[in-house]
């Protein structure tokens, strides 16, 4: 993954101060064993893992490209398993090692199509056949502020929806149909539209998708 598609220095610098708010829709997890192996890919400071633990899930692992985020996660949740990714999107996770993978507000941090496809391929590798992929991310917004910055940066980044934030990140908002393209190898179980506050405090429209890796023939 290129430096632009991982942006580790930005996330290390932001690790102590950023707050994430994408909600975990627990009814989607009702049919999953509390002992199932969960991976939170792009776990940040461990917010979602802590919520899962509070609801009885006891086999949780979190990974993130930012060592700073992992350090914060370990300070906040010293009994939980966290690891920094050395060469994202690749991980040291075993093939078919997880029953469920969560990908919360990660794609918005990866501007490039190819890099996003590589990440989904990696998650497909580490999911068990029949395993669950739960994605939460941001859609294209229709307000003037966002439309202006999409247009301002489209030529430079080669994609409408990629933009620079005021504090130095490059982020991406997605057309709804992009997620169907990205998850073409998965079986979509459910989708929902959410309203969420971004890391910089702007109310935005997002999407959550629950998908299943096909079982082996």
What's this, in brief?
29% of the residues lie in helices and 27% in strands. The protein has 217 residues and is an alpha/beta fold.
Description:
With 217 residues, the chain is of the alpha/beta class. The chain has one domain (3-212): 3-Layer(aba) Sandwich (Rossmann fold), CATH 3.40.50. It contains seven helices and nine strands. It has a seven-stranded mixed sheet with strand order 3-2-1-4-5-9-8, sandwiched between helices. The longest helix has 14 residues, at 113-126. The mean pLDDT is 95.
Give structural attributes.
alpha/beta, 9 strands, two-stranded antiparallel ribbon, globular, 217 residues, 29% helix
- Portion in strands: 25-35%
Integer-rounded radius of gyration: 16 Å
CATH fold group: Rossmann fold
Oligomer: single chain
Q: Calculate the terminal CA-CA distance, rounded to whole Å.
A: 32 Å
Strand order of the largest sheet: 3-2-1-4-5-9-8
Task: Please trace the helix and strand order, writing H or E for each element.
Answer: HHEHEHEEHEHEEHEE
CATH superfamily: Vaccinia Virus protein VP39
């Amino acid at each position: 993954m290129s430096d632009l598609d991982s942006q580790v220095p930005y996330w290390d610098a932001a690790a102590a101060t950023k707050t994430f708010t994408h909600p975990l829709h627990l009814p989607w997890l009702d049919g999953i064993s509390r002992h199932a192996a969960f991976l939170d890919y792009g776990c940040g400071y461990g917010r979602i893992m802590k919520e899962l633990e509070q609801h009885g899930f006891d086999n949780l692992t979190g990974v993130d490209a930012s060592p700073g985020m992992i350090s914060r996660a370990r300070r906040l949740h010293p009994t939980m398993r966290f690891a920094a990714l050395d060469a994202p999107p690749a991980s040291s996770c075993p093939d078919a090692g997880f029953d469920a993978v969560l990908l919360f507000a990660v794609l918005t941090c990866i501007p490039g199509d190819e890099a996003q496809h590589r990440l989904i391929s990696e998650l497909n590798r580490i999911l068990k056949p029949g395993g669950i992929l739960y994605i939460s991310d941001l859609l294209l917004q229709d307000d003037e502020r966002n439309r202006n910055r999409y247009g301002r940066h489209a030529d430079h980044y080669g994609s409408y929806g990629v933009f620079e934030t005021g504090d130095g990140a490059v982020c991406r908002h997605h057309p709804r149909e992009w997620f169907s393209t990205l998850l073409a190898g998965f079986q979509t179980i459910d989708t929902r539209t959410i309203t969420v506050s971004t890391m910089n405090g702007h109310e935005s429209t997002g999407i959550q998708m629950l998908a299943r890796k096909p079982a082996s023939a």
